[in-house]
Amino acid sequence: MTENNNPQEDMTWGSSDYTDNPEKRKTDTFADELSETELSGAETEAADSFKTELSAEEKLKLELAELKDKYIRLYADFENFRRRTAKERLELLGTANADLMKTILPIVDDFERATQSFDATTEVQPLKEGVALIHNKLYKTLEAKGLKAMKTVGLPFDAELHESIAQYPAPSEELKGKVVDEVEKGYFLNDKVIRYAKVVVGA
Asked: How far, in Å, CA of 30 to CA of 45, rounded?
């Protein structure tokens, strides 16, 4: 009999066929490499995602640092502006006083000359006229700076302008509740009260 029906030989051949079949081995190797490639791609994608998250966080940190820097600079500029404004205001007040003093100095000179003339003359009338001229010059100078005297006598009492220091029986019915006498003159400076008038009010 020439046929070989030994099953063990068939199994041996099958094993040998698998081992010696290069196509079979190539297919299995490709499958293993594919699995590793897919895994590597997933890891790369995860890493890229992590890097993206880190980049977004770093970007927010940079924006926060920039905003903080802008805030600090703005605060510093405001402080410098406030100090500069306060300094300029003080300088302005000092300059305003200096300007007023310069306008009054000639009047002070007139008073000094008038005082010297008191000892050189015995006539009263020229002295009175000289003092009246100096007084008028002083008032005109102050008026040019915005000073204005109040008119009070005969006007109704106004607590916003007047300070009542006494009440006196009104000489007539029309003067009741009105100013009948002025003890101390009141003044405006550019339409703002700088001194209240002290007055006597008719009762």
From this structure: 22
pLDDT over 90 at 187, yes or no? yes
E strands, 75-142, where? none
Q: 98-115, pLDDT tens digit by residue?
A: 888 888 899 999 888 888
CB atoms within 10 A of CB 141: 15
As a residue count, the chain comes to 203
pLDDT single digits (tens) 47-58: 556 556 667 788
Q: How far is CA 61 from CA 6, 50, 67, 69, 72, in A?
A: 78, 17, 10, 12, 16
Please, what is the angle between helix 124-144 and helix 22-120, to 10°? Answer: 170
pTM of the predicted protein model? 0.52
Please provide residue 183's backbone torsions phi and psi, each rounded to the nearest 5 degrees.
Answer: -90, -40
Structure tokens that stand for 197 in this block: 């008038």
Contact between residue 170 and residue 136 where contact means Cβ atoms under 8 Å apart: no
Alpha carbon distance 139, 161 (integer Å) = 21
20: left (phi over 0), alpha (psi -120 to 50) or beta: alpha
User: What is the identity of the amino acid at 2?
Assistant: T
| CA nearest neighbour of 178 among 188, 168, 193, 192 | 168
User: Taking 80 as the threshold, does the pLDDT of residue 29 lie above it?
Assistant: no
Instruction: Decide if pLDDT at 38 tops 90.
Output: no
Identify the bridge partners of residue 147 per DSSP, sorted by sequence position. Answer: 189
